[in-house]
Amino acid sequence: MNSLKRRAALEALNWIEDGMTVGLGSGSTAEIFLHGLRHKNIQGVASSKKTEVLARSLGIPLVETNDIDVAVDGTDAVDDSLTLIKGGGGSLVREKLVAYHADVYIVIGTKEKWKKTLHDETVPVEVLPFLHEGTEELLLSAGGHCTLRLDTKKNPFVSDNGNFIYDCTDIGEVIDFHEKVVRLPGVVNTGVFLNLADIVLIGEDTGVRTER
Ligand code: 5RP
After folding, report:
1. What is the pLDDT along the chain (212 residues), one digit of tens a residue?
2. 124 touches ligand 1 (CB under 6 Å)
3. Helix (H) or strand (E) holding 31
4. Dist. CA 142–CA 32, nearest whole Å
5. By alpha-carbon position, which residue is closest to atom 1 of ligand 1?
6. Which of 26, 106, 123 to mutate to test the pocket of ligand 1 (most atoms within 8 A of CB)?
7. Across-strand partners of 85?
8. CB contact at 8 A, 123 and 192
9. Active-site residue list
């Protein structure tokens, strides 16, 4: 599995040129990509605190700007319309911002991430802690079966933005669900990334498949 992640991550490095501002994704696949950036003369925009720590340890200079040339990130699921579901690591809101502001958004993953349909996938939703149980009721009435994400100590998982995450299943059509819930009071955003991915690089046994 790691070798397939590595294949996709190394392929993404071909898009990176010296002097670029690069959006740095989060998660294990994005971390492999980050290691490859050590040899490039670029500056990065980190999509999570964990990525920020890794980038600093690798000597990658960091900036906070929305002027991003290329962003590279992993995904939890992707279909043939290049809709993504992200947020397994809890960094969905910053990841979406970085993706939105990148001139080119490249997604890297392994063949397991490629889905015929996103229908049965779990969609993370980041919500404000304030009155979050009320927000949970609203999510339920939007058709989701949503569970508060817990950390290893069984406390609510807290995102880099100080928010909670609900993982929603049985939601049917993910885009409809996203559109219904994204405007609910208390909801910050969802892990559905619509019309954002420009290029998807899938690590397979025989090489890297490119979808665009
Ligand atoms: C974090 C994410 C990650 O990109 C996603 O979970 C994929 O992670 P991995 O590369 O470890 O499978 O969205 O919020």
Report:
1. 689 999 999 999 999 999 999 999 999 999 999 999 998 999 999 999 999 999 999 999 999 999 999 999 999 999 999 999 999 999 999 999 999 999 999 999 999 999 999 998 999 999 999 999 999 999 999 988 999 999 999 999 999 999 999 999 999 999 999 999 999 999 999 999 999 999 999 999 999 999 99
2. no
3. helix 28-37
4. 37
5. 89
6. 26
7. 77, 192
8. yes
9. 95
Question: How far does the centroid of ligand 1 lie from the alpha carbon of residue 91, in Å?
Answer: 8
Place of tokens 């290691």: 35
Q: What is the DSSP string of 98-154?
A: HHHHEEEEEEEEEGGGB-S--TT--EEEEE-STTHHHHHHHHHHTT-EEEE-B-TTS
Q: Decide whether any atom of ligand 1 lies within 6 Å of the 88 Cβ.
A: yes
**Which residue out of 28, 110, 122 has the highest number of ligand 1 atoms within 8 Å of its CB and is therefore the one to mutate?**
28
pTM for the structure as a whole: 0.96
Q: Is the CB of 92 under 6 A from ligand 1?
A: yes
Question: Which atom belonging to ligand 1 lies closest to the Cα atom of 108?
Answer: 10
The Cα–Cα gap between 163 and 128 comes to 5
d(CA 208, CA 173) in angstroms, rounded, equals 29
